[in-house]
């Protein structure tokens, strides 16, 4: 059975909505940060830190895409965006990160890393794969 994590944009988040293109841009920015870190270390850290390529399928166009692993330690991570009403009736955007059934332990570790990075960047509420919640948004 596949597992899902959610990054929910709540009141106090860096932005109220998030599109699929913005998600791709955020991941490319993350990949670029890893490349700069690797340059400072004198090591090709980009391939180790982000061992995926961006892939799309026609049925997911505009709704989701997946990251395909570049080596045998990683297979797939599916990412999508959406919105749903919260308890007060306000539409809230979210990012869903899905680990398909055949995902590896490496995929789960990288997915957790990506979720935490996006949660911090967006000041969002992160619902992890294990059901726990991390709050990166300013709460009163």
UniProtKB/TrEMBL annotation:
SUPFAM superfamilies linked: Rbstp2229 protein
InterPro entries: DUF1885 (IPR015062), Rbstp2229-like_sf (IPR036294)
Gene3D superfamilies in the record: Rbstp2229 like protein (3.30.310.120), Rbstp2229 protein (1.20.5.850)
Name recorded for this polypeptide: DUF1885 family protein
Upper classification of the organism: Bacteria, Bacillati, Bacillota, Bacilli, Bacillales
């Amino acid at each position: 059975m596949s597992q899902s994590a959610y990054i929910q944009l709540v009141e106090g988040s860096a932005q109220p909505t998030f599109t699929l293109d913005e998600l791709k841009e955020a991941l490319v920015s993350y990949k670029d940060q890893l490349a700069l870190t690797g340059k400072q270390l004198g090591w090709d850290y980009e391939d180790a830190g982000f061992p995926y390529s961006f892939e799309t399928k026609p049925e997911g166009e505009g709704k989701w895409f997946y990251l395909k692993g570049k080596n045998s330690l990683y297979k797939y991570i599916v990412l999508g965006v959406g919105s749903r009403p919260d308890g007060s009736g306000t539409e809230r955007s979210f990012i869903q990160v899905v680990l398909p059934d055949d995902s590896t332990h490496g995929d789960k570790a990288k997915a957790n890393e990506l979720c935490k990075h996006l949660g911090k960047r967006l000041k969002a509420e992160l619902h992890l794969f294990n059901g726990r919640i991390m709050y990166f948004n300013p709460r009163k």
